[in-house]
């Protein structure tokens, strides 16, 4: 009887894990390494059901000062559930050569507290799966600091070019729409 009970528990756990994986939107399926860490981020576990701003970044881009505004957005809306995910990329040849240098730019120079990943490809066949889905739902980033606003269902509701500053009213309206969305 005890063996039957444990077998039922194992099957239930396996089925619930499968159900959770099936409930995870395609955008959030997969893992990505954190910046300057041995940890990986399970995108579904970290962001499913949450409003999300995804930004491809570069340490030595003319738009790098946007880190300050992105951090301000995060601080303003994190209490309402907003998550910000920064994804450094050298696709446009403006990222630091080392993760140590990238971390210094983000954490020391700009005081970033939102999650940053290790450098990733964000365009083309080698793009991080997250960015492949972002491109399918919107378009691929044309430059560094391209911004994607994702609702609680894992759908892109708006994307913004590098020229759009973090305090732009249209970006803020999209973030507020994402926060108001239902999972």
What layout of secondary structure does this protein have?
Elements: H1 2-23, E1 31-33, E2 40-42, H2 43-47, E3 52-57, H3 66-77, E4 83-88, H4 99-109, E5 115-116, H5 129-137, E6 147-150, E7 156-160, H6 169-180
Parallel strand pairs: 3-4, 4-5
Antiparallel strand pairs: 1-2, 3-6, 6-7
Q: What is the domain tally?
A: 1
Strand order of the largest sheet: 5-4-3-6-7
Topology as a string of helices (H) and strands (E): HEEHEHEHEHEEH
CATH superfamily: Glutaredoxin
- Share in β-strands: 15-25%
CATH architecture identity: 3-Layer(aba) Sandwich
Q: How many angstroms separate the termini?
A: 40 Å
Which word captures the global form?
globular
The CATH class turns out to be: Alpha Beta
Counting DSSP H or I runs of 4 or more residues, the number of helices is 6
Mean pLDDT: 90
Gyration radius (Cα, Å) is 18 Å
> Approximately how much helix is present in the residues?
25-40%
How would a crystallographer describe the biggest sheet? 5 strands, mixed
| Sequence stretches where pLDDT stays below 50 over 5 or more residues | 1-21
Total strands? 7
Instruction: Label the structural class.
Output: alpha/beta
CATH topology: Glutaredoxin
